[in-house]
Each structure stands twice: as structure tokens, then as C-alpha cells.
Records
---
Amino acid sequence: MTPRSTRTPLDPFTARVLSVVRRIPPGRVATYGDVAELAGRPRAARAVGNIMGAGGQPDVPAHRVIAAGGALGGYGGNESLKRALLMAEGVTFRGARVHPFADLRWAPARTGRRRATPAR
DNA sequence: GTGTTGACGCCTA
DNA sequence: ATAGGCGCCAACA
């Protein structure tokens, strides 16, 4: 089980991805591309998918990470479960896509990012 | 070090 | 709307 969590200490990017996903609130979703961008690698959507599939941790709501355009994306072969989990949180679907995607799509609150080093 | 795989994304037909 | 192709990045053999 979790062949990776017990091996590598987690690279910065991977840790960042998990951190981002953890912040996605219930009833909201984020695309693999969104997570990748928030993690610092806008083109690493595929890598994010791999990281999700790698298992991650129980406190990481991977089911809230979907594909672009509101598509469901994968879930270890249990897409129906992923969809059920989202619906249970209030996410509505329109066919195979979340709807309204624009409103359900989550974006981090930018409560005014303060720099650690208060520009002297 | 290289090669393959994969819960992706976007473009073109 | 469906199918195929290319690019992207990280994990693993």
C-alpha cells in the first residue's frame, strides 16, 4: 500500500499539489490544470492526475479534482463513486459534466498575500 | 542515464 | 458530439 508515501519524502511540487487539493472546500471542484497551476506548474495537469492516483493521504479530497471543462475525469476506475461523492456535497451535474462549472469551480481566497519579509 | 505509463489539456478532423 | 494526435510533467522499471 502507498508504495510512494513510505519511500520518497515527497518533492516540493507533489507536496504543493496535495496542499492545494486539501484546501478545496466541499461542494466545490478544481480541475487538474487548476491544481497544477496553483502548485506552480501550469502545464503539469497530467502529473497532478498521477499524483492523485498515487494515493496521497486520506485527508486529501481527490474526488474534488476533476478534468477540464467540468468533465468528471477519472477516479481509479470508479468514476461513478467520484460523481456520487460530489453530488453528496451538493455539486450538480448536467450529463457528464458539473454544472454550472464556472460557479462550482474553486479558486483560492487571496486574502491579501503578505510577504514573509515585510519589505523593510 | 533511458523508456514507458498515466485519475490531463488543447487542437484539429 | 466523437475520435485521433501532440505536448506537457512526474513516477516507476
---
Amino acid sequence: MILVRTAARPAPRPRAVVVEPGRAVEQCLHCDARKHSVCNAIPALDLDRLATTAVSMNVESGRAFIREGDPAEHFFNVTAGCAKLFKLLPDGRRQITGFAGVGTFLGLAVSATYAFSAEALEPMKVCRFSRAKLRALLDDFPAMEQRLLEVASNELVAAQEQMLLLGRKTARERIASFLIARAALPSNCLASEPELAQVITLPMTRADIADYLGLTIETVSRSLTRFKAEGLIEIPAAGEIAIRDSAALTRMAAGAGP
Amino acid sequence: MILVRTAARPAPRPRAVVVEPGRAVEQCLHCDARKHSVCNAIPALDLDRLATTAVSMNVESGRAFIREGDPAEHFFNVTAGCAKLFKLLPDGRRQITGFAGVGTFLGLAVSATYAFSAEALEPMKVCRFSRAKLRALLDDFPAMEQRLLEVASNELVAAQEQMLLLGRKTARERIASFLIARAALPSNCLASEPELAQVITLPMTRADIADYLGLTIETVSRSLTRFKAEGLIEIPAAGEIAIRDSAALTRMAAGAGP
DNA sequence: CGTTGTGTTGATATTAATCAACAAGTGTGG
DNA sequence: CCACACTTGTTGATTAATATCAACACAACG
């Protein structure tokens, strides 16, 4: 969970590592993640302290590593791969509330139980924190709490945007919004440029997209087919979509276009 | 923005007031709010410091005091009344993302502009903080940051629940969920008992309910009429609903019942 | 006493869901 | 290597839930 600039990990782990304030941190000393948004906020860390708090874990594809209603014992930071987060109704209806890519925090909630389930879409790596110990850690590192507040605020804004989509947008507008949002994802476009990606990778199935957008798989499929016919997108391969007319899609996503 | 147990405000305001840690705080020294969730988290406060940071404001009914897209200069805490929070599409479609009652924080976002608009449903009182000064205040009082993180986490859970509602619940289930959620509100049921209120007060119109639940006013009206015919509720007066069969409504809200 | 905003109810339209069939890809085991 | 099951995705026909359009009742208000 600690990031320092050193490329190689020190063989016998030092008992305490202090990263100088202001110095950029890139390589997690705890797990092998390259970039670790928790730690970027923490100028000085006690390695042993963190080592007892976090463990790096591999999660196999399809594995549900958080279950709604279970006691919320852990707190996760995604370091590789992507998960879907969802809530279920008793009869099986499902709402995917988001996809958790690299850097995402999971399980922030104050509640004693998880409010949603999380299932790996592909092989993942996560850093798992004990929530009990996390509280003590946050008390020592207010900067980390500040970072978490930022993250939570941003997620809240995204959640409100999704409510607008689910409550008021048409099927076509929802798909367009989804495509544009994916294209704007830092993992899909080059990190340096703020532009949209030309080709986006979708690690989720049509069923996942449908459950994320409050539609059925048939409606998702038909909308994509129609976008293709209209020259807005191309589908070069399964799990890939090429954006051909991002302006039109952006307009549609905003609730204006055709 | 400071709460101490003293009933009367000290006439010449002391230059610095320190509230002992662990001591309950009830009366805001800054504005005249009775309970102030910001301050409950802060064991020791500098009154002058806060006084330059927050001002108490009255907001008349119908006034939009936050506008989506405007520079986010302030941060609010509702101390009386209720507001609707919403986002608009260019053609006027509206999604109400929540209702902000007493104690609610508004404008937490990291972004430079507001992500939603807020309009008073009734005469309100809010405490307005300068966001620029808030940052410095939070740095001095990590406990306040912690409190905000809790609040944001809870709101995130509520937002996910609302996504489930908007994406996957039927019109009847949405209305049932709304009624049960309002009945569970501390302001509607007695604070001491965790039970549901028998009669709930709705400060919002049918149009607001519709825009909150992703429905039309007609569907809201028809659903309520049918609930009444089925003996689940009664409508003693405009803006009031009496819950007659909370068990059935709760089941329906969960996506199980009839 | 008209005007306006709000809420209800009815008739009809439309979007997206449901039901159904099938194609393509993947993995399994004989 | 090839049937076989199984998953995923596409497309068509039909249905159903909810939106839309329309009329009207009622209360608040100037």
C-alpha cells in the first residue's frame, strides 16, 4: 500500500519507511501495484503499520468478492482488472450501480454490512484493508481521509448523473451516454490527452450493460445495431466498439441530438 | 455553526469558544439552528474562525439557491425546511436526485461547478460556508472531515438504492419505496422510536415526486389512487398521506409483494 | 370572479419489455 | 475430430407498462 519511486523492492523489508512529503510515489511497496491512489495522499507512512492493515489479493474472473448484506469487514482498492457492482431484488432483477476499475475504492460505507455486491469481470488484483484497522489508520493520516472524501464526492456526482440517465433518458441516449463515458475513461484514452478514445474495450457483457442502464439485453443489442447502421459506431470485434461520430453520440448522450 | 448547550446566546460574543470534547452540543452559536450536524463532530472550535466562514441565510420558498453549472463557491448546511435537488436535460426533462431536509450538506463536490440545482420547497434556513475557507477549516478539524466522509458514504448508499429503484422497479414499487422511505424519516416518525410514521407530510408536489421517481405525474396520481382503493393508504389532506398497511407497502417496496 | 397551479381521471399512443428463434463461439468429452 | 451443451449476441413478432394527450375539478389568489 506504500508507493515510493524505487524501481526494485528492498529485499529485507525495512521496518519503517518514510516517504518525504511532496515526493511522488509510484510503486506500491506492499503489493506490486504501479499506482495506488490511497497512498498518493499520504506523505509519510509507517510500512509495518500498513502491512498489518492491507493485503494484496488476486480475484479470479467471475468471483463475487463482496456480497450485499454480508458484514462489511474489509475495504478494497482495485489495483488491476475491473469488477461490476450491483444490487439485487428478491426476484432476481439486478441493477449494476457501477464498474470498479483500477484505483476504485470499494466498501467505504459506514454501515456494518455491504450495501452492494461486487463480482470480478476479469482476473483482478485488489488491496484489501481491514476496516477496523483502517479507522485507526485514517485517524493518523488525515490526508488519506481527505482523499477518500474527494473520491466519495466524485462518486456522488457520478451517481447523480446516473440517476438522470435512469430516470429520464431514452434507451438510445443511455447507450450513447455509456459509450461516451467509457471513451472518456483514462484507461481507454491516452492519459496525457483529455480527448475521447477512438476504440473502447468493454470487459462486460450485453447483460451487464443492460443491467447498468436499466434496459434489457435486446434493447441494448438493437440500439447498438442501429448506431452501426447510422454510421455512429463500428463493432470490429466482440468486446470492442469503435466510435465513428463522437460528436453525434455526445449530443445524443446530453439529451439533445437525434 | 457552533453548538453548545447554553440556551441563550452570550450577548457580547466571546472571542473564542472551546466546547469540551464529549460534551453534547445542541444550540448553534453562529446561526440560531437547534441542531447542527457539522458541529457535532467538532470537539473544540474557534468561534471567530467559524464566524468568518459561515453565514446563516433565509431562503424563500421556490428560490433556486444552487444552480447546476455555476461556480461552486459555497457549501451549505440545511438548518430548516426542505429543498429539492435536481438535474435538467436541455429539453427540460428533469430528474430530482434527492430532497435535502434539516442536517443535509449541499455542495460537497470537488468540482469547480455545482453538479445539480437546489430549490427550496418551503421557506428554508441554511448555513452558508465559503468553500475556499472550508478547506482550511477542514485541515484544522480532521473530525469534521471524518463526519463529512460519513455523510458522503451514506449518501452514496442512498444513491445506489435510488439507482436500483429507477433502473429496475415498477411504478407501484417506486411509489411504495418512496412512501416507506418518507415514513422512516426521523422528522416524520418520533426520533426516539425507530418505527415508521403513521402519517407522513409531503412538502413536494406530484410533479416533484414524479421527477424523483422517474415517472409522470399521471402515473404517480393513479398509483396513489389505486393504493387508496386497495386500502394501503389514505389521503386525509393535500400534502399528507396516512399509511394503513405498512407491511404490504414495505413488501412491495422491496420488490416482493403484489 | 376570472386566473393559475395542482391533482385526478379517461382515452390513446409509444417505447421498451417479453417471448421466441436462431447464429456464432467456446469448451467438453467421447 | 466431431457431436453436444452452453453462453452470448442478434433479430423478429407481439405485448404490456407507462407516457402522452385531453378534459375537468378544486383550491388559492389577486
